[in-house]
Specification:
With about 350 residues, the protein is of the alpha+beta class. The protein has helices at about 20-30, 85-90, 90-100, 200-205, 210-225, 265-275, 285; strands at about 1-5, 5-10, 50-55, 65-70, 80, 110-115, 120-125, 150-155, 170, 175-180, 185-190, 240-245, 250-255, 300-305, 305-315, 325-335. It folds into 2 domains: about 1-140, Roll (Diaminopimelate Epimerase, Chain A, domain 1); about 170-320, Roll (Diaminopimelate Epimerase, Chain A, domain 1).
């Protein structure tokens, strides 16, 4: 399925080995990793197209289904469960209906989803006229050709603190950063503080060796500050460069996942960016001075390399006086691409 601006293989949990090592070994062969072309599997030779969703009925009273996201590395024999994926999340509700995990409504269906990676919850609502998932529609999202039916995804407040370091601003190697987690651990950095404009193409940024070194330094130090430990082999935190908007949005972004530059922006990454922009004293304050989120919430347009993403966010204050995310909502689209049997390479 395509979910948002990503593509992945969706499985029922019961169709995969229960033991994580055996499961991951199988998924590497299914996706064709490690190989830069993933020529012998389903993967598309890019982190955005080498993803897996594992879905099952949930035992939680707050959810209908459990969704485990796995990032399958392209060139390394690695499978990571250290992060969520909000784009692949957009396909979980339709998949759950297709596989009979959730009964479809006559007009639309709302599926409550527990994201196993973090314990966070989300509700995906999408059209099901006559009790069948409808994929066709007139909603377009930047980074995906054509249009499709809308999938509205709403997130309540996150399971952990919005500010993992307990501070709105930290300084790493002389570079001011804001470390935020509204569903995705993210490090916000003003592009200018790293010597780039933030308007470069993903390819140009990936080819900048000096920038790559600075980003690695920032990411490794931020991981420690955010309580994630040694993140040298992890896919989080993401680093998002911020610059002044050019097309009427709140901010322009370039996000690294964690080394490749995203051709758009992830849903949960955008949720963290939006919440981070709303923090007085954060690094986004000078880059996006009009983006501070009022208590009633607001809709922000996050610009990225292939267009923009609109996201609604509402902030609150904890009893301790710290900022917290209260609600985040976004509209994505999803589409079933094929349904069948995959034949993995021999072990």
């Amino acid at each position: 399925m395509r979910g948002g601006t990503s593509k992945g293989a969706y499985f029922l949990a019961g169709d995969l080995p229960a033991q994580p090592a055996a499961r991951d070994a199988l998924l590497l062969r299914v996706m064709g990793s490690p190989d830069p072309r993933q020529i012998d599997g389903l993967g598309g030779a890019h982190p955005l197209t080498s993803k897996v969703a594992i879905v099952s009925r949930s035992a939680s009273p707050d959810a209908d289904v459990d969704y485990l996201f796995l990032q399958v590395a392209v060139e390394e024999p690695e499978v990571s469960d250290h992060q969520n994926c909000g784009n692949i999340l957009a396909g979980v509700g339709p998949f759950a209906v297709e596989r009979g995990l959730v009964a479809a409504g006559e007009a639309e269906t709302a599926v409550r989803i527990r994201m196993v990676n973090s314990g966070d919850l989300a509700t995906a609502t999408f059209p099901t006229p006559g009790g069948r998932v409808r994929y066709g529609g007139d909603v377009g999202i930047a980074g995906v050709p054509g249009t499709a039916a809308p999938v509205s995804v709403e997130f309540p407040c996150g399971a952990g603190p919005l500010l993992p370091t307990g501070r709105v601003r930290d300084v790493i190697g002389g570079t001011p950063v804001t470390c935020v987690d509204n569903g995705m651990p993210t490090v916000l950095v003003a592009a200018a503080s790293l010597g780039v404009s933030g308007y470069e193409s993903p390819g140009e940024l990936e080819g900048d060796a000096a920038l790559a070194g600075r980003l690695r330094e920032v990411r490794l130090a931020a991981g420690e500050l955010m309580g994630l430990g040694d993140v040298s082999g992890a896919t989080v935190p993401k680093v998002t460069l911020l610059s002044l908007p050019r097309f009427g949005g709140a901010v322009s972004t370039r996000t690294f996942i964690p080394v490749r530059c995203h051709t758009s922006i992830g849903v949960l990454g955008a949720a963290s960016v939006a919440a981070g922009l709303g923090l007085a004293g954060g690094v986004g304050e000078t880059v996006a001075p009009g983006a501070v989120v009022p208590s009633g919430g607001t809709r922000l347009r996050i610009e990225h390399p292939t267009g923009h993403l609109d996201i609604e966010t509402t902030l609150a204050t904890t009893p301790e006086g710290l900022p917290a995310a209260r609600r985040t909502a976004i509209v994505r689209t999803a589409r079933k691409i094929f349904d069948g049997t995959v034949f993995p390479a021999p072990a």
